[in-house]
Amino acid sequence: MKVTVVGAGAVGASCAEYIAIKNFASEVVLLDIKEGFAEGKAMDLMQTASLNGFDTKITGVTNDYSKTAESDICVITSGIPRKPGMTREELIGINAGIVKEVSSNLIKHSPETIIIVVSNPMDTMTYLVHKSTDLPKNRIIGMGGALDSARFKYRLAEALGAPISDVDGMVIGGHSDTGMVPLTRLATRNSVPVTEFLSEDRLGQVMEDTKVGGATLTKLLGTSAWYAPGAAVSGLVQAIACDQKKMFPCSVLLEGEYGLNDICIGAPVILGRNGIEKIVEIELSDAEKTHMKESAEGVRKTNDLL
Ligand SMILES: NC(=O)c1ccc[n+]([C@@H]2O[C@H](COP(=O)([O-])OP(=O)(O)OC[C@H]3O[C@@H](n4cnc5c(N)ncnc54)[C@H](O)[C@@H]3O)[C@@H](O)[C@H]2O)c1
């Protein structure tokens, strides 16, 4: 199993590290445009192999796509991250050009690959890959919901005073501060709805904290986060590589599901060896339907900027 990660920055390197530590891939190629940068990150990571006990071979290359040939999975993290006070949507001008060029180069050398888009604004960048390549829709996946759901579970556990392993929950919708739809109605602690334990007000706070999860970290760190994004990507890569048939909310091209068409937005999907093997349609409440519709309008506004 060969995985390429484009962009050896904070998220790309963290993603390569988590993939290697989980020890399911034979090879990870890190590619960056900055001379020597990916080579340096790869060498540093390889020097953790004996300490962390993995056999995955990590190599770094400067913009040489021939080294990415025959990759089973390619992850795109190249582009600029947001700075404090910025929205993900403001990154579109620079990142659209990068994502378009990178995806075309990747497909030239790995026509059978599955692409995972991470660069922001992620739903629009995923849509751009659909529009600018002829990969089938099951092989283009946007990573946002897996991260947002992890942040949701963190906030739920905090509110419940419970260990995170007791908590389950999912965030669908657009990967933006206003677009996320945390499904509090369906979240549980050991199969018991969290609504049994938390007041409407407290759950409202959990939702708000989840939606601004990325912005909160960007303010604290001065740039966007990388550990949880890297771990979330590695979860998607592992589900595909190991044909796990796991369910994650991912940005996927909808064709009628959830009443939406011609848009990439977060919805639950089953991930396996063929990428997106199924889009799971769950019955939403009226309030959730409205929230999802508003979220889609926000994503479409950013798509229009393309
Ligand atoms: N989808 C998500 O949940 C999520 C989460 C966190 C960050 N992000 C996004 O991921 C992207 C990367 O964030 P980061 O913190 O790693 O940024 P970073 O600046 O640390 O790394 C980006 C890297 O991309 C490289 N790069 C730029 N243009 C390139 C090109 N044409 N080809 C190859 N490499 C190129 C840069 O040299 C840099 O090393 C940002 O757009 C950020 O907003 C998304």
Q: Which overall shape is indicated by the principal axes computed on the Cα atoms?
A: globular
Bound small molecules, deduplicated: nicotinamide-adenine-dinucleotide
The CATH superfamily of the largest domain turns out to be Lactate dehydrogenase/glycoside hydrolase, family 4, C-terminal
Number of strands: 14
Count of discrete domains: 2
Query: What's the gyration radius in Å?
Result: 18 Å
Poorly predicted spans: none
What is the CATH C-level name of the largest domain?
Answer: Alpha Beta
CATH topology assignment of the largest domain? L-2-Hydroxyisocaproate Dehydrogenase, Chain A, domain 2
What's the helix-strand series?
Answer: EHEHHEEHEHEHEEEEEHHHEEEH
Strand content: 15-25%
Percentage of residues assigned to helices = 40-55%
Per CATH, which architecture of the largest domain? Alpha-Beta Complex
Major sheet strand order: 3-2-1-4-5-6
Main pleated-sheet profile: 6 strands, parallel
Write the layout of secondary structure elements.
Layout: E1 2-6, H1 10-22, E2 27-32, H2 37-46, H3 49-52, E3 57-62, E4 73-76, H4 92-109, E5 114-117, H5 122-132, E6 140-142, H6 145-160, E7 167-168, E8 171-173, E9 180-182, E10 188-189, E11 192-193, H7 200-211, H8 213-221, H9 227-241, E12 246-255, E13 261-272, E14 275-279, H10 286-305
Parallel strand pairs: 1-2, 1-4, 2-3, 4-5, 5-6
Antiparallel strand pairs: 7-10, 8-9, 10-11, 12-13, 13-14
Walkthrough of the structure:
With 306 residues, the chain is of the alpha/beta class. It has helices spanning 10-22, 37-46, 49-52, 92-109, 122-132, 145-160, 200-211, 213-221, 227-241, 286-305, and strands at 2-6, 27-32, 57-62, 73-76, 114-117, 140-142, 167-168, 171-173, 180-182, 188-189, 192-193, 246-255, 261-272, 275-279. It has two domains: 2-143, NAD(P)-binding Rossmann-like Domain (Rossmann fold), CATH 3.40.50.720; 145-304, Lactate dehydrogenase/glycoside hydrolase, family 4, C-terminal (L-2-Hydroxyisocaproate Dehydrogenase, Chain A, domain 2). The protein has ten helices and 14 strands. The strands form four sheets. A six-stranded parallel sheet has the order 3-2-1-4-5-6, with helices on both faces. It has a three-stranded antiparallel sheet with strand order 7-10-11, with helices on one face. Helix 4 (92-109) crosses helix 5, helix 5 (122-132) crosses helix 10 and helix 6 (145-160) packs antiparallel against helix 7. The structure holds nicotinamide-adenine-dinucleotide. Nicotinamide-adenine-dinucleotide binds at residues 6-12, 31-34, 37, 77-82, 91, 95, 98, 102, 118-120, 122, 143-144, 147, 175, 223-226, 229.
